[in-house]
Amino acid sequence: MFLPNRNALHGRPLDAADAEILGIGGADTVERFLARRDNHLTTPLHTLPALAGELGLAALHVKDEGFRLGLGSFKALGGAYAVFRLVLEEASKRLGRSVDVGDLDRPDVRTVAATMTVACATDGNHGRSVAQGAELVGAKAVIFVHAGVSDERVAAIARYGAEMIRVDGNYDDSIRQAARIAAEKGWTVVSDTSWAGYERIPGLVMQGYTTIVREALRQLSEPPTHVFVQAGVGGIAAAIAGHLAIVLGETRPVFTVVEPARAACVFGAAKAGHPVKIAHGEATVMAMLECYEASPVAWRVLARAADAFMTVDEDDAIAVMRRLARPAGNDPAIVAGESGGVGLAGLIQAMAGHRTELGLDATSRVLVVNTEGATDPRRYAELVGMNPEDVLAGKVLSQAKP
């Protein structure tokens, strides 16, 4: 499915609150926080000339978030960052003085953090980030996971000391239960989706994602003409589209949101003109994108800053995983999880059927984001036919060639 953005808000400036969150000042704040992380490194930007040539493009670049902060996903930027901000705000309030990121290891700040419990629902990656953030600052974390979250992903979260609670149903069911129990217990919900009266914390999560596009713009010799980014509830797509709209203005790239056909909640919002709850059917292999209602704050940005919405099928996502693992020519090998290559899958489909609507041609420079590596290695090996370690070993060899 393909839908140009026909919303009346399309092309208009972001709301002032969203522009503040996703603008230059917000991105500066995120970078200041990241500078304090021991394992913070700029993630790679890969150039794929062979695939670009096959598709008839001037250039194709993949921003690879599979290496982000040791968590293997772009989500490492959002949940942990929001936890840090919330702990510092609470410490400033209780201690009666300004507390900044450099104070996170101070005994009095950690004493405050130890009294705090953060909670969230997750498909896997966001909960891992929240749990890691809580462990780093000395807070407690309670993570709600639905029935479709694999045991491997649950174990990866639990390693950070989080209490894990299984919920019957899907992601949206886990969101509701997390919010209800957190309200009863006095915990702080750190969600990557918003709802009425709850927007600031999801906004902070989105603010963390601005680092991805800021790094990419620095790594590119010139800005992209087109960007394809996948969406679950819409947070990363909104963060990237919003930041691009702010920093590039009239020269911003054509931005396309890509989703699984089985869980296309942002597409549903685009069709209806506002967030709607879509029907839950058969589960999608793109597990990290299996969401059935778009985040209102993310939709508010995308209604203005996205140019098109599209969906891809199960086979499209798997085919991209395999293609990135076994590249042609001198293209590097890339480990992309089940949801990681969905933006690229959208580009491939667009070149086959929607290039005219999007203005894609031989002069186009396209940016996509590999949002996750093999966060479930066993599942990755089942789908790709190779272990992620072997793919990365091939990557090292290909880069070593003269």
Alpha-beta classification: alpha/beta
Helix share of residues? 40-55%
Distance between the termini: 42 Å
Order of helices and strands: EHHEHEHHEHEHEHEHEHEHHEHHHEHH
CATH class of the largest domain: Alpha Beta
| Low-confidence parts | 396-402
Mean pLDDT value: 95
Summarize the biggest pleated sheet: 7 strands, mixed
Shape: globular
Cofactor: pyridoxal 5'-phosphate
Pfam families: PALP
GO molecular function: diaminopropionate ammonia-lyase activity
Keywords: Lyase, Pyridoxal phosphate
Question: What would you note in describing this structure?
Answer:
By secondary structure, the chain is an alpha/beta fold. The chain is globular, with a radius of gyration of 20 Å. It is built from 17 helices and eleven strands. Helices cover 46% and strands 14% of the residues. The protein has a seven-stranded mixed β-sheet with strand order 1-10-9-8-11-3-2, sandwiched between helices. The protein has two domains: 270 residues, Rossmann fold (3-Layer(aba) Sandwich), CATH 3.40.50; 113 residues, Rossmann fold, CATH 3.40.50. Keywords: Lyase, Pyridoxal phosphate. Its EC number is 4.3.1.15. GO terms for molecular function: diaminopropionate ammonia-lyase activity. It is an enzyme of class 4 (lyase).
Strands, helices and their partners?
Elements: E1 2-4, H1 16-22, H2 24-34, E2 45-47, H3 49-55, E3 59-64, H4 79-95, H5 107-113, E4 117-122, H6 125-137, E5 140-146, H7 151-158, E6 163-167, H8 171-185, E7 188-189, H9 200-219, E8 226-230, H10 235-248, E9 254-260, H11 265-272, H12 296-305, E10 308-312, H13 314-325, H14 342-353, H15 355-358, E11 365-370, H16 377-384, H17 388-400
Parallel strand pairs: 3-11, 4-5, 4-7, 5-6, 8-9, 8-11, 9-10
Antiparallel strand pairs: 1-10, 2-3
